[in-house]
Design goal:
This protein is mainly α. Helix content is 70%, strand content 1%.
Length: 421
Amino acid sequence: MERSAFSKYSWIDFVFSVIGVCTFLVDWASDVWVATEFYCRGDLLWFSVLVGLMVLSSVVVQMFSWFWFKYDRELPGFSGRPGAGTVLFGDRVKLCCLLHVLQLGFLCRHISAILQGFRVWWRKEEGSEYAVYLTHDLSMLRLIETFCESAPQLTLMIYVMLSTNKARTVQFVSIAASTTSIAWMVVDYHRSLRSFLPDKAKQGWGSSLIYFLWNLLLIAPRVAALALFASVLPGYIGVHFLILWLVFVLWVWRQRTYFMDSVAGEWLYRATVGLIWYFSWFNVADGRTRGRSLVYHSFITTDAGILLVTWWCYRDPVQTESYALPLIITLPLIYLLGLLFKTLYYCCFHPKLWRPPMRDPGLPADLPDAEVSFRDISIQDGALSSQLLNKRMACHASHFYSEQKDVGQTDKTSKAESPCL
């Protein structure tokens, strides 16, 4: 497997970066519009909840971005070399810290990725590896932002429509923006995962389409069930979230993840995964993948069933007469269809071919693969060498594409082989 299969930057990557920053700005503008509408109409509770979601999402994303900036500065050759300061924040730690405090770090990453991508395109592949590195980080940050803000915001907007039994233009705009954000995240994240495949050129857009469909068909009924439950028992949705989030965080901790390079960062990651699992599933550890997925979907299916039954029992029969029966029938069927698409993906489109790149002939024969892939990083002529891979996305790609390991494999062996380290 050639190393270039992981690092080649294309015009499609540049287009995705440009669309990504446009989506971010449009989503932010729609959030401000919706919040302003709530405030002007006197809906201070919904205004507070919406602003709280926006602040929470922004703070979490900025924290991840800051942690990753600190980690990357510790990579060999990152600081004090020609070209290192032309993208992202270079070695200007104070400026970077200020931008993140002002909640501008994520936006600056978008702009840096566009500038570096244009520089690569204009100079014919110079710095291509680092441009890919930046886009992979943005893909992961967009994933985090989506489930910290867009998914909860979509739930809130549906809840508001159900509670008031009417819909205003601003609510439709918010729902459209949140849905678009989730859809874009799904496709972009899958593209980033596919970039680590040795035969990624053979993976057509059909796999991304199926991946998008099963995620959308699983997330949509989940969001709808939460909104329906909140419409009849609004005081209990917070308790429901808190209980499930604590259970999910404990489950992530039990899986002994090693995604971040510090203890504080790892707990931030585990807390964020707990939030993501409240809406959707993705694998975060090696081994027993089918078993964990089966447990999760069984749990979520049971939980959604309880939420729908509760809504059916406490709903207003007159107000919900026009849509109650269709919803109670359609939502489980949509979720079942999503599970079928997921099964189809893993049976027909999931290339379980991920493996570490070939070791450099000039490196010692006894050097571990993980060291070759992620630790041996240097800068030559102002650009990172071709050995640079984004270990954060490679970590998730390894969990997503690797074969299921033996149940009896020791934690020590899993940790030693994990590309997250």
